[in-house]
Amino acid sequence: MKTVAVIFILLIFISLDSVVKCNGDDDGMVGDDDANISNIKCLVCKATILKMEEEIKKVDPRKTVEVSGFRLDPNGKPKSKSIQYSKSETFLTELMESICEPDNFSAVSQSIIQKIVVNQMLNNNGELDFTPDSTLVQSLNHFCLEVLDENEDEILKNFMRETTADHIEEIICTKLAKYCVEDGKTRRNEL
């Protein structure tokens, strides 16, 4: 039975094209709770942003919505413009409210758990000391909500732009929210 588990883990390792490097520490994941939480928050942030991007791509680009602001034209009427529905604050807010729900987040959490296992195996010379349980899935869901709540304005601003940047998950999770570290840099300790 152990060999089947090892083969399964190795198949997961082989099937992943790339491993997200979110933790600047070389110690691995065992025994370092701060590194574990930082690494998991990074993975959750990136997975959540990628899931949002995936859901946005499902919306018909021809679907538009009229938005108006507080500015008036020379005739005293409010100025309005038509934007893609997928770029509207209404759609994005609804998406952010539903993305962490268990039905929507289960595939994302499975992906995160696979990356945790692979990262741990890479950092511990192939040894694995990891047992996912129900509290981990609940923690991932909590981190998803936390990421969206703490960074709502930045996430909305980046997704509402006319053109969404490539690798938006890197921009939001590394540069803006600072859950992840850039390659070659170490995580700064916060007081």
TrEMBL record:
Annotated Pfam families: DUF3456
DUF3456 domain ranges (all copies): 41-180
Domain of life: Eukaryota
InterPro entries per UniProt: CNPY (IPR042415), DUF3456 (IPR021852)
Signal peptide: 1-24
Keywords, in A-Z order: Signal
Gene Ontology CC: one annotated term: endoplasmic reticulum
Family classification: Belongs to the canopy family.
Protein name: Protein seele
Organism: Pseudolycoriella hygida
Gene name linked to the record: sel_1
